[in-house]
Amino acid sequence: MWSGMNTAFERLTRLRRNENREALMDLIFEGIKKAFTLIFTLDSEVLGITLLSLRISGTATLMSLFVGITIGTTVALTRFPGRQLVVSLINTGMGLPPVVVGLFVTIFLWRNGPLGFLEILYTPMAIILAQAVIATPIVTGITLASIQQLPANLRLQILALGATRIQMVCILVKEARLPLLAAVMAGFGGVISEVGASIMVGGNIKGYSRVLTTATVMETGRGNFDIAIALSVILMLLAFCVNAILTQIQQRERPR
Questions:
Q1: What is the DSSP letter of 96?
Q2: DSSP E strand boundaries for 155-248
Q3: Of residues 135, 132, 154, the one with CA closest to residue 143
Q4: Is the pLDDT of residue 12 over 60?
């Protein structure tokens, strides 16, 4: 590890010492060109890493939506002692450091940990679990704010029309669908770009648990900046495509 970091540092030092800005721009250009080469040639390794990244982050986002929307809606519609503290904890969790999540998930999944019997540490499932933990507070916080911003008397009006409580909740969630789509985008964006927890719980194993972010860190440590830039470009393109689709749905649903 340290030798790889030293190699990267030496290469950067050499570039700064012996080269000019043009050399650095050439390096960035080569990385971008390599990214599109890998995409259009359907490089098997990069394609596998990209699809795994999409599958892991997509699954984690779906898990966070189920938990986050449920908790956020419940907290928004109920009053109980300590509610203010719960809301504060949710808002704090929206900025939860991924590396802290990775540490605690690793401890819980360790062989002698509370969840060690699952034997999923250093697997894609462990990354999904860690990313779901990261995304859930984000989805919960946005859901909570979205439900709270609805008119205060809307709930009473729905109940007065004969709706059950479950129907009332469904209607409220439907009314808040636009900001909830923003929650999906925020949750997905938070986990697809996450690296600390993914390395800690996934192990960055080639062909098994290596995703775009962990591969980028690895190539940077090796001094392969052109490949690292290429992977970064692919990661940004992936995030853009997913969010562009969600944005299209959101804007189509926008009230006229």
A1: -
A2: none
A3: 135
A4: no
